[in-house]
Structure formats: C-alpha cells, structure tokens
Design goal:
InterPro entries: Ig-like_fold, PapD-like_sf. This is Pili assembly chaperone N-terminal domain-containing protein. The protein is mainly beta and 288 residues long. It folds into two domains: 120 residues, Immunoglobulins (Immunoglobulin-like), CATH 2.60.40.10; 102 residues, Immunoglobulins (Immunoglobulin-like). 5% of the residues lie in helices and 54% in strands. The protein is built from one helix and 21 strands. The radius of gyration is 25 Å and the shape is globular.
C-alpha cells in the first residue's frame, strides 16, 4: 500500500504559504447553498390532458461552466403542512397514482455549455385500459458537479480587489401530470388567521379540496379592490383533502386604508381547463 508522507515544512516554506494566503485574501469567495437558479426551466409543471401527447422542456445552464445533468423520475407525496417529501424506492402509498410508467423522455443525460440550453422531450404513452383519474410523478434534473463558478456581481469599490463567486449546485424537480377522463374539483378556505410581527404579516389557512384532480393557483390579498400581495403557485394534490398553508406578506407601505378585513382569493391559472383563470375559493381575514 502506498502512503502519502507528510512533507517536512521549512520556515522558508511557511513564509511562502503566508504570502500566498495574503494574496488569496484579496479574493472574495461567496458560497451560496441550494442555489436553484443555477438551473432554469422553461416550464414549472407538465400537464398531459385531452389530446396532448408531447411536451418540450428546455433546461438552461446559468453557470459560467459547462455542466452535465442527469434526468429521471421520482415519487413525491404532499403532506398537510410540510410541503413535499420523497418516497423511498419501493415505498407505496395507495393515495398516489404515479405517472412515470406512462411518460418517456429523451435524452436522459445532457451536457450543456455555460449559458447554453438543451431541450428535453417528454412523450405520453398511455395504456388503453388505464383507469380514469389524475396521475403524477416528479421529474428531476440533477447536476453531476457539486459546485460551479458564477460571474461575480459588480463591485461598488474596485479597491476591494477581484471577486470570485462559487455556488453550490442543487437539482430541481417539477411535477408531471397525466389526466384521464372527466376532471372536476371544488375548494373552500377555512380557519384563515393573520398575525403581525413588525413589518411582516404571517397568514395561515386551510384549503379544502374535493374532487378527482389537484388544485393549483395563486393566492391574492386585497383591500377595497386594491391588491396588497400575491403568492404564486399554491398546490393541493390529490393525496390531500386539506392542506394547511402558511404564507408571509409585508405590511403595505400605505397601510390598509381603513379596512378591517382583507379579501383572500385563491385564483386558478388561465390554462386551467375547469376554472380558466377564475376564482377557485375565497374568504376574508381580519387585518392584524
């Protein structure tokens, strides 16, 4: 067995190392964990519904280096209050209907130059005897590298010396849905509460779901018809009949205009086949 021997350190070597450290101190090294912006996608969810059989997803490499990405499916379950959790391989949940056996994709591994992009095609291969319902799996894109260099942010003071930014790379996932047969869902909002903490307001509420498909939309807060805040992309998946949502909004700069309550509206996207951008559910919450 070969063993690395620790080299004998001389005083001259120590002087060199100290000088090197002083030089390196002029560089600003910024570590940012879980920076999902290293990868950008042109879609936030994929929906196979009606006659749609293909979807083209573009992956954009936002780093300053060439990156290799691997792609695949995994099963994730939504919990009532903690978002999504990944099911281990082989784990079963009778409330979940996976879509990965019906959706193929190509390529499965891509190399994208710095600032470049790559298109991935997802193709539906639906069995003739598939049972009506909503099926869902989560498509993941994961970089093989753990970190990458980014273009440094502009410096206000050039005397600070050069800047190097190294960001930790994180993978991203997006849900892929397959809807078979007639779809219908209704919702209601209950137990809405708002608590003020300094210049922020914490809002909690329960979104109840009833039907054979998931919910997806934006939550809007308004007062006397004026929009105060909007939170995008709130989902309630089919494994839940109720989800407790915790949101955070700033106190409006101009106050609440004398309103004693805020209107809370859960609004669908324009692409929603049932609601077509309309109101899914709404309630009021007392101004804290």
């Amino acid at each position: 067995m070969l063993m690395n021997k620790k080299p004998r350190t001389s005083s001259r070597h120590n002087i060199f190392v100290r000088g090197l450290c002083v030089t390196a101190a002029a560089l600003v090294l910024t570590l940012v964990a879980n920076d999902a912006q290293a990868i950008r996608l042109t879609m936030k969810r994929v929906m196979f519904e009606g006659s749609q059989r293909t979807a083209d997803l573009t992956i954009i490499n936002n780093t300053a280096e060439e990156q290799v990405y691997r792609l695949g499916f995994k099963t994730m379950r939504m919990t009532q209050s903690d978002g999504l959790e990944t099911l281990e391989d082989g784990a079963q949940d009778p409330a979940l209907k996976s879509a990965d056996s019906m959706v193929r994709f190509s390529p499965r591994r891509v190399t994208i130059p710095a600032g470049g992009s790559q298109q991935v095609r997802l193709m539906l291969n639906k069995p003739k005897d598939v049972v009506d319902g909503e099926y869902r799996s989560h498509f993941w894109i994961r970089p093989e590298a753990e970190s990458a260099k980014f273009d440094p942010a502009p410096q206000d003071n050039a005397a600070n010396g050069p800047s190097v930014q190294i960001k930790m790379l994180a993978g991203v996932t997006l849900p892929v849905f397959v809807r078979v047969g007639p779809m219908n869902v209704t919702a209601s909002i209950e137990n809405a509460k708002a608590v003020r903490n300094g210049d922020r307001i914490a809002v909690t509420m329960d979104i109840n779901r009833d039907g054979n498909r998931s919910l997806y939309g934006d939550v809007e807060f308004s007062c006397s018809g004026k929009t105060l805040h909007q939170v995008r992309g709130i989902a309630v998946y089919t494994e839940l009949t109720k989800r407790t949502v915790r949101l955070n909004m700033p106190v409006p700069k101009d106050g609440f205009g004398g309103c004693a309550t805020m209107d809370v509206v859960y609004r669908a996207e324009a692409s929603d086949a049932q609601y077509k951008g309309g109101v899914i559910a709404q309630t009021k919450v007392a101004v804290p």
